[in-house]
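seq as requested:
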Amino acid sequence: MRRRVLDPRVAVLRRFAVAGLALLIGSAGAFAQSGTPAPQDQSGKPPAASTAEANKDNQRKADEFVEAAQAINGPAGNPECVWLGRRVVRLMWRDDLDTAFRHLDLYDRFGCPGGHVQATFRCLTRFGGQIDPKVAETLDSRIHVCWINPGAQPQAAAAASPAPGAPATAGNATPAPAASPSPAPGAAPAPPAK
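struct tokens:
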């Protein structure tokens, strides 16, 4: 077999072509990893307004944790239990049970009471008609109300349930159990009129 001898200029060009191809492949990988740049905030709000809004939201969350710690005795009032427990209830409400159970495992590891999650979810189901699925804040506020007081009742049912003469309860106070209607002892029916 005869061996072909290349022109030295062709050999140099091949080396440059191989080096250029390697450079091109390497830079394409770098561009692919960097992705597209994040879009700028197009909400039209200046950054100071969004920062003030974020600070206000953070302060509200901190106030909710303090309120829960003051209102609930025991571990259900601990910040980690409040945060995880409300998240579990929210996920259960949105039918994301797999994620809710994973969070519930973590909730249990912190020593938080599982019965409080159950009572809070039961309370939330009573408020179901008042929760607007398009407004996340209504769900979050109802979950917080139910976490603080699992015995809370919706306003329409709370206004109709008190017996005459019974003191009215506030929306977040635990209502007394309704007494079963029974005749007063010693009360006899009146004789029919003649």
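The two ends are 139 Å apart (CA to CA).
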